[in-house]
Amino acid sequence: MNRRGVTLAELLVAIPLLAVVGTLSTLVFQTVFEETPKTHRAVAALAAWPDALRRMQADVDRAEAVLPRAGDLDAGEHRLLLRLPDRLVRFEVRGGQLLRVETPAEPGRPPVETAWPLPGVRLRFGVLQDDGRPYAVEVRSAVEVTLKGRPVERLTNSSVLFLHSLPARRLHP
């Protein structure tokens, strides 16, 4: 038998299948086209990050001690306290910025604050220890973007370690 065309039954099966495939591919492309530019914008916002890391490296290299507490300030995931020979330096995450606050040892001199904008970036500080002695400072980061109204983390588990920056003879406060 020589057939031309398609039967009504074949059309009734093919049209819904094409609709399902079209809907799924539309959702995939929509997500890709929304997510990619937002992720690129978030990464571009990190332009200040290398400068902040260089400053932090320099301070950690000069540090006499990594402090768990200084005055009424506690160190923790969102704050790093360093004692340098002539000042106290703290790095703190606040309001989408990484702040470096330098408090001179000389009384009467005001603190000097430097800020690096890091919108959508979540930072956590850690001090790695061996037998209770700090040997490295760790900075963990993640970039948060909003997709379809909810925050999603990208570039998670990005870590910077300042290894061997704290010589053993200078570790204890």
Can you describe this structure?
The protein is an alpha+beta fold and 173 residues long. The protein has one domain (42-170). Helix content is 29%, strand content 43%. The protein is built from two helices and ten strands, in the order H-H-E-E-E-E-E-E-E-E-E-E. The strands form three sheets. It has a five-stranded antiparallel sheet with strand order 1-4-5-6-7, covered by helices on one side. A hairpin with a 2-residue loop joins strand 8 and strand 9. The longest helix has 37 residues, at 8-44. The radius of gyration is 26 Å and the shape is rod-shaped.
Sheet with the most strands, sense and barrel status: 5 strands, antiparallel
Q: Structural class, from secondary structure content? A: alpha+beta
- Tell me the number of strands: 10
Query: What share of residues are in beta strands?
Result: 35-45%
Element order: H for helix, E for strand: HHEEEEEEEEEE
Helix share of residues?
25-40%
- Shape category: rod-shaped
Biggest sheet strand order reads 1-4-5-6-7
Query: Termini distance?
Result: 95 Å
Quickly count the helices. 2
Count of discrete structural domains:
1
Poorly predicted runs of 5 or more residues: 168-173
Mean of residue pLDDT values: 81
**Rg on CA atoms, Å:** 26 Å
Assembly type of the shown chains? single chain
